[in-house]
Design a protein that fits this description.
- This protein is mainly alpha-helical and about 150 residues long.
- The protein contains 7 helices and no strands.
- The chain has helices at about 15-40, 55-60, 70-85, 85-100, 105-125, 125-130, 140-149.
Length: about 150
């Protein structure tokens, strides 16, 4: 019997092993990033009209350490609506939000006052007051009055 003097070739030193190692390093990073992006697409606000949470919503100060409270999200959304449309639309949506989520009722008055102050800045006191309606015990009107005086 004759013994071979050549050593057997080692398995796994070829390109397949290098590709496998690269995938083992890159794949977890890709999975984490894709999961993070998927989470940003979920409607966490509970507001059906705002069904997509964009990455810019996450860049606001304080959102990395603490998630924003539902009343803060609602207030900011309504302030944007007040600027883009009019205070009447924002007040209607405030009432609808409180009707849908009674847990927001405790924040309704402060949100309505904030809307009233913002309306005075945008429309002036007379026009802002013309949008007043009995949402949250006339807190909108008190916000208009406070911003005007």
């Amino acid at each position: 019997m004759k013994h071979s003097t050549t050593q057997p070739t080692r398995r796994g030193r070829g390109p397949a092993r290098r590709i496998g190692r690269s995938l083992a390093l890159v794949l977890p990073v890709v999975l984490v990033l894709s999961g993070t992006l998927a989470v940003t697409r979920v409607n966490w606000s509970g507001n059906p009209s705002n069904s997509v949470l964009t990455a810019s919503d996450l860049s606001a100060p304080g959102t990395a350490a603490h998630p924003r409270a539902p009343q803060d999200v609602l207030r900011d959304h309504l302030l944007t609506e007040l600027q883009e449309k009019d205070p009447g639309v924002a007040l209607t949506h405030l009432q609808e939000a409180v009707d849908e989520r009674p847990s927001l009722a405790g924040h309704c008055a402060s949100i309505a006052r904030t809307l009233g102050r913002a309306a005075v800045r945008l429309y002036g006191p007379a026009r802002a007051q013309s949008y007043a309606r009995p949402v949250c015990d006339t807190s909108y009107a008190s916000g208009v009055l406070a911003a005007h005086s």
